Amino acid sequence: MRIQNNIAWITGASSGIGEAVAMEMFKQGATVVLSSNEVAKLKEKKAWFDSVEKGRCYVIPFDITIPDEILQAVAKVKQLVPRIDILVNNAGVSQRSYAMDTLIDIDRKIFEINFFGAITLTKLLLPWMVDSGAGHIVVTSSMAGKYGFRMRTAYSASKHALHGFFESLRAELYHRNINVTLICPGRVQTDISLHSLKGDGQQYGLMDKGQQQGVPVSACARIICRAVEKNRKEVYIGTSEVILLVIKRICPPLYYWIVTKISPT
After folding, report:
1. How far, in Å, CA of 159 to CA of 157, rounded?
2. pTM for this structure?
3. Given Cys at both, which of 29, 43, 147, 240 links 4, Cβ 3.0 to 4.6 Å?
4. What is the spatial distance between Cα 261 and Cα 74, in angstroms, rounded to a whole number?
5. What DSSP element (H or E) covers 236?
6. For the chain, how big is the Rg over CA atoms in Å?
7. How far apart are CA 263 and CA 255, in angstroms?
8. DSSP letter string over 162-181?
9. Which residues are catalytic?
């Protein structure tokens, strides 16, 4: 699948990886539908896209944790565009708190945003993709979806859950010409740590040192777009985080030792 001339719906598109993917897909000739719960930021993005070329950017704000709003968003998108070729499930929130210090309601909130929001939108959109005869579902997971990490208990669990669901879904959709790509970023230069949730639900508000030194978000977006075009099943983006995954596979005892020593921030 080429990005050009396709229609892509990106959630979490007001900042970070979602914003960068939207910009990269737009530059490659796609029509983009931008969604998040930050209305003002979405309008700013649309103004920029329209200044480049009008008619290839739409904005549908909604809250990914509210099923009725997701349902309404799907209905609005169907009024705006003839189909969705690429769905990028990118909306998400991270965590910076230990399990013992995290309220169970915050664990549930993280799952609502990272997991249930993505599968609710996907399930609502799937019949339309099937009727269109093709589609590509992209899911922003994390390296924390491949191995556990301190201060990420609920976050890591929600990302592991995405792998279980979407790997199963890929097998179910094999004969329907609908592809699934799981993206596993490590440390990417975004504000994700600033907006991460502490155990009481407050924002963490600090930039992780590792985040500052991570992969540039524009480079991350280009890797994601290439993965879509090549129909990659799973993609790892990062540096030492990817090495840690390899170590876990070939020498688990070393991984278990290292993971207790690395700074969680």
Report:
1. 5
2. 0.95
3. 29
4. 45
5. strand 234-237
6. 18
7. 14
8. HHHHHHHHHHHTGGGTEEEE
9. 155
7-239 CATH: 3.40.50.720
SS3 58: strand
Can you give the length of the chain in residues? 265
Model confidence pLDDT, tens digit, residues 196-230: 999 999 999 998 988 888 999 999 999 999 999 99
Residue type, 5: N
The answer to whether residues 241 and 148 touch, using CB atoms and an 8 Å cutoff, is: no
**Tokens 């549908």 sit at which residue?**
60
Give me the residue spans of the domains in the chain.
Answer: 7-239
10's tokens: 């990106």
118's torsion region: left (phi>0), alpha (psi -120 to 50) or beta?
A: alpha
Q: How many CB atoms lie within 10 A of CB 256?
A: 13
68-96 residue pLDDT tens? 999 999 999 999 999 999 999 999 999 99
Burial class (CB in 10 A: 0-12, 13-18, 19+), 21: buried
- CA 190/CA 210 separation, integer angstroms: 11
